[in-house]
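Entry for the shared binder. Reason: the reviewer on the internal report wants the predicted structure included alongside the sequence.
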Amino acid sequence: MDESVVQDVLGLYEEKIDKSDLSAKEKSALKKSLKDRYTNMYYDCGEAIGVIAAQSISEPATQTTLRSYHRAAGIGLNITQGLPRILEIFDARKEPVTPAMKIYLQKEFNTKEKAIKIAASIKETNLKHIMTLDSLDLGNMTVEVELDKKLIEKLSIEPDKIVSAVKRKIKNLNGSIEGNKIIFEINKDKVTVKDLQTLRFKLREVHVKGIKGITHCIVEKTSNEFVLYTLGSNLIKVSKIEGIDISRMKSNNIFEIVETLGIEAARTTIVSEITDTLRGQGVDTDVRHLLLVADTMTQSGDIQAIGRYGLSGSKSSVLARANFEETIKHLVDAAVHGLSDELNGIVENVMIGKTARVGTGLVEVVMKTQETPVKVVKEKKE
């Protein structure tokens, strides 16, 4: 083993060990145990780590629940888990079925009142959420919206802001406030009942407060702090809200993490999401297999799916691509362009019945024998 490689890996931990309150003997023993552990994690030259990782993940994944939802927070947000979630990650789908966030608060904002206030500022609030009744006034050809007074006070929403939000969303509209009602009138010469009905349904969907896409935001008390769970994800806008601990904020939307925090953060999220999903199903897969998959998916700087349009479809071997899916397409394309296969991988060698260059097949032993001179014995003539 190269001693310098070991020192580079353990160097991250040695400083913490040296600064600890342990005795010199304990520090030495801890460093030795770390070195031994690192040594045991080595794999042999030629070992098929890709195949082993695939088996280690796929076999226990068959034991997971086909349709499973995890109820995040005590009140219950149904978050996709089990096999559907694993497929989402490995297929690199742009948007998860149930995007979600876990938001921690800064120490000075870690109170129930402040947590509820922050949750209210995050949750998407449309006009339909804060009104008790909407009706048509056919005499004046207007739409009347009656607001929930207690709710708008709780959410700190001013009626004037509601009117402004509606005017930004819907053009040629006037709004006037009368007590607990807002009356909307269309700026048009001839207004029909159909126009009022169309306006009525549009008004219900006008975004008034919060962040679009985050339909739920629940506050839950853990052992020592308040945590917010959301259904919907928007890292950029949530991070701008005062009181949010950005360093601990989590999202299960991997592509959003790539755009916001970069590919390394996405790689860490892939490992974390798969680990949590498998652990939730009672499956204990060694994290090194998950790290290998995450590294392979993110090695190009973008997230690649494990499928025909991702890693499997981008292999250099023609036979390996044809073996996975779309066999005729790959073989015809290779024939037309005159492509050749170097037979360096496992799949293509197995297909043609040749020893794959992996494990013991990686080693070629040639033995050279020394020629023994032939002695010629002459017979004596009598």
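Summary line for the report: The chain is about 45% helix and 15% strand.
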